[in-house]
Amino acid sequence: MSFIEARHLVKTYGVGEQLVHALNDVTLEIQRGEFVAIVGASGSGKSTFMNMIGCLDQPTTGSCLIGGEDIATLDSNALANLRNRRIGFVFQQFNLLARTSALENVALPLLYAREGDLAGLTKQDRLEHAKKRLEQVGLGERLSNTPAQLSGGQQQRVAIARALVNDPDLILADEPTGALDSKTSAEVMDLLTHLNQQGITVVVVTHEHDVAAYANRTITFKDGRVLSDQKNIPKNPESKKSLVISPKALQGDNSL
Questions:
Q1: pTM (2 decimals)?
Q2: Of 27, 45, 94, 253, whose CA is between 20 and 30 Å from 6?
Q3: Torsion-angle region of 167 (φ positive above 0: left; ψ -120 to 50: alpha; else: beta)
């Protein structure tokens, strides 16, 4: 079974007296462990599709299965639980709490864990788990820094560590390099590539061809439909040495 399955996915919005088809009969599958780029112009449907597979919205008609669970059948609490268990989000503007340390920003999602080994952790255990994720992205010496004390690239690394803290199956990155210069963008994409090489499914929404080049598959949206779906030879990471440590190696024992 595919990890993500969209079947005849339709999403419509009412704009005045008009009906806008943000998604129009989208059918596709994403396998576990793939690195997929979703591309398209503004209004193409790519962000709406990301909201669907991120359990942030539900289809008007059709089905969207994440790990075998159909989001169309879930209530808001079940959707929130699915997001928390299986999905990590990375955003263009980082979305970090301004007056909160990197460590506390990363630990925050653990407060909402309701199932699995990460549910019910003490504050100390949450901070320890968050520390390991910051070490995983090369920021072990920046634990107490607030976002204002970090560069844009470092803030995005904090955001990636936060996306990893719940040990997700899927990372959804929405224009993750949009606020970064080209050098820092390459570093962030290298990091996402290394995470994917360790088995995490990565889906990046972007309008930048340089970013899409890191994926092994590119899906192009236009007017709410899939225009093309093609395999790529992905760009090799520019950094030869990965800063990323395997999540399993970080866990060490079964207490986390």
A1: 0.88
A2: 94
A3: left
